[in-house]
Design brief:
By secondary structure, this protein is mainly β. The chain has one domain: LURP1-related (Porin, Beta Barrel), CATH 2.40.160.200. The chain is 14% helix and 40% strand. It has two helices and twelve strands, in the order βββββββββαβββα. The protein has a twelve-stranded antiparallel β-barrel. A hairpin with a 7-residue loop joins strand 4 and strand 5. The longest helix has 17 residues. The protein is globular and about 40 Å long. The two termini are 30 Å apart.
């Protein structure tokens, strides 16, 4: 059900003892997924499950290295163990405007995830972190795969994902990138 959804919201769980946790909601407010970031790890380790009981793992997202500046994160289909692709942060350009590259299972670029505008990014970094972020997921060959929109709320991080219908993008890669952005960028709020 989660991979078929074209619109969903990722919301950070407010009270977690260690690590971070996220609920994934459909437009009706039903929980269709759950994600947990393991605490006390040198390398990021994020898991996506079908529900809060964590009985069925769908994806695992793991950093390739300890250094986070230009890190790449492997997104793996948990039931099969097969790589879906990766999300790689563009280190230098992300200093001024968050920018990621989505890679296929063979590390070939298939899309980029770019923060909305340079001016808004400047205001967020240097003046106020209360301005919500938006990201466009753009195919390498042109066209839109998805849109990620953060909602204004200084206490709870929420990110709405809207996948373009018929985009051809692997929904697991889009979900993995969205959860990763919620975990990494949401931590900076």
């Amino acid at each position: 059900m989660l991979f078929e959804a074209t619109t969903y919201t990722i919301r950070r769980k407010v009270f977690t003892l260690f690590g971070a946790a996220f609920h994934v909601y459909d437009p009706s407010g039903n929980v269709i997924g759950y994600s947990k970031q393991k605490a006390f790890k040198l390398k990021e380790d994020i898991r996506v499950f079908s529900d809060v009981s964590m009985s069925r793992e769908l994806l695992s997202i793991n950093a390739r290295s300890v250094i986070d500046f230009s890190a790449a994160y492997d997104i793996v289909d948990a039931p099969t163990g097969e790589p879906v692709g990766a999300a790689r942060r563009k280190g230098w350009s992300s200093l001024f405007r968050d920018s990621w590259e989505l890679l296929d299972a063979h590390d070939h670029p298939v899309a980029s995830v770019v923060e909305d505008s340079k001016m808004m990014a400047f205001f967020r970094r240097f003046l106020s972190n209360l301005i919500p972020q938006s990201f466009s997921v753009l195919a390498s060959g042109g066209g839109d795969y998805a849109q990620f929109d953060q909602h204004f709320n200084p206490f709870i991080y929420r990110l709405t994902v809207s996948r373009s219908s018929g985009s051809g993008a692997d929904p697991r890669l889009i979900l993995g990138a969205a959860v990763l952005i919620a975990a990494i960028e949401g931590r900076q709020q």
